[in-house]
Design brief:
CATH architecture: 3-Layer(aba) Sandwich
Number of domains: 1
Radius of gyration: 16 Å
Number of strands: 3
Order of helices and strands: HEHEHEHH
Strand content: 5-15%
CATH class: Alpha Beta
Distance between the termini: 56 Å
């Protein structure tokens, strides 16, 4: 029988994810454990907000998805603005780059 946590970890590894950022807790400890067994480096944080910012910044700089692992609950709700903000920044950056190229700037 295959564990769903192992499937998530294997899927992330096959997608080329090398690093996962987050805070482990009882609902997601198995995901982090299986991810490490699959060769994904897990960087643990004390707080969800810096972990989310680290995942977003790593994704932005590398061009690969940044993976942020956290538990559910009130803390998760506080972390929701992070990916939305980073996605907005990425979209604006891409739009500015396209606009810059339209005007033949160096």
């Amino acid at each position: 029988m295959v564990d769903g946590n192992a499937l998530v970890a294997r899927a992330l590894a096959r997608a080329g994810i090398e690093i996962m950022y987050g805070v482990v807790g009882i609902p997601v400890t198995a995901v982090a454990t299986h991810a490490m067994k699959a060769g994904i480096r897990f960087i643990a944080f004390h707080n969800e907000q810096p972990a989310g910012y680290a995942a977003g910044a790593a994704g932005y700089l590398s061009g690969k998805p940044g993976v942020f692992l956290t538990v559910s609950g009130k803390i998760y709700a506080r972390s929701l603005p992070l990916p939305l903000c980073l996605c907005l920044c990425l979209c604006l950056d891409l739009e500015l780059r396209e606009t810059k190229n339209d005007f033949n700037y160096p």
